[in-house]
Amino acid sequence: MARIHLDEKTVTAFVAEATAAPSMHNAQPWRFRYVAAERLLLLYADPERAMPRSDPGDRALHIGCGAALFNLRVAAAHASCAPRTRLLPDPRDRLLLAAVRLADPGEAPRDEDLRRLRAAIPQRRTSRHPFSEEDVPEDVRAALREAAAREEAVLLFPGRWHVETLLDLVRDAESRDLMNPAADEDLVRWTRIGSEAATASDGVPEYAFGPRRRDGRAPVRDFAGRAPVADRGSTVFERTPHLALLSTRGDGPADWLRAGQALERVLLESTLAGLSTSLTSHPLEDRELRLLARDPRAGIGHVQMVLRLGYGPRGPGTPRRPVRDVLEIT
Predict the structure, then answer these.
(1) Does the pLDDT value for residue 226 go beyond 70?
(2) Is 125 helix (H, G, I), strand (E, B) or coil?
(3) Which residues contact 168 (CB under 8 A, 6 or more apart)?
(4) What phi-psi label fits residue 80: left (phi over 0), alpha (psi between -120 and 50 degrees) or beta?
(5) pLDDT tens by residue, 104-144
(6) Please, are residues 40 and 101 in contact by the beta-carbon 8 Å criterion?
(7) Alpha helix stretches (DSSP H) within the chain
(8) Which of 88, 18, 24 is nearest to 60 (CA)?
(9) Cα–Cα distances in Å, from 6 out to 75, 297, 325?
(10) How many CA atoms, within 13 angstroms, populate the side-chain half-sphere of residue 30?
(11) How confident is the model over 311-330, as a mean pLDDT?
């Protein structure tokens, strides 16, 4: 097959797709460097976008970067490249999270499954709106479980009693925040209200907050807190939210990167299946609560994310930094 020409425009497009990934509070904690002579895209963590209060071990940072890495793989595969990925390729550089060599067709099998997910990248949204009570069909659940497994993770749809436990953990996390004046330090830093929302290139702008929850039990974080937001309103959310837990066997940086890739694969598959999604890490930000989140019957694995899925509005897109701010080409 012909060699694919990777010019600056093509590489920029790949990184634009990568940065459409979700990250905690939309902090976008990534940087990229393209080494043209080696056809190598390097993914780095951006420590200035870390969250020392709510993510002191950088677990969520790695998950966000892993999601961006997955989008990069999808974009490259869609362009007929064969992305070859190594996680944590240099133990001497803790900020270097992954190296992706953009191989030519024929150097690796064509991945049609990655290619077809490309259409979902611009459609995927985090929705903080109410979903219907309609259940997610079993064939869709099976497809999502398979998506997680392909990235060495496990997606569990908890039973009713386990859902009740998770909702209790969310309420516990909210109560702990109320007792700690500094607990919302990171959230406040990344919340964009008023005129700031119109020009923001990161964070969660007020137009993405969704309505206040007047009733219902969906675990939706309220970014506004007590701050007034014009024309926001309130509504009733679902009383029986459909939740899923994403877990990995290990709990180190490589596992978190795998979790991020699995998360984004699940989210893209969900989007193609017509589902709306939102994420909550709130009950996982406290080590004690996080340990209680996993299924005690299975007793294995480490919960990395709680997903809420259902049928409802997908919500607006959130801002992204210009690619020129996150990509260096050498």
Answers:
(1) no
(2) coil
(3) none
(4) left
(5) 877 777 789 999 999 999 999 999 999 999 999 999 999 99
(6) yes
(7) 8-18, 59-78, 112-117, 138-150, 160-179, 185-189, 195-199, 253-272, 287-293
(8) 24
(9) 13, 49, 20
(10) 39
(11) 97
The pLDDT of residue 169: 94
Q: Are 98 and 87 in contact (CB under 8 A)?
A: yes
Cβ–Cβ < 8 Å for 69, 260:
yes
By C-alpha distance, which of 97, 37, 106 is closest to 67?
A: 97
Question: In sequence order, which residues have a C-beta less than 8 Å from that of residue 128 and are 6 or more positions away?
Answer: 208, 209, 210, 220, 221, 278, 315
Distance, CA of 198 to chain centre: 23
Q: Is 45 left (phi over 0), alpha (psi -120 to 50) or beta?
A: beta
Token representation of residue 34: 């393209």
CB of 305 closer than 8 Å to CB of 158: no
**Distance (Å, whole) CA 111 – CA 82:** 8
pTM (2 d.p.): 0.96
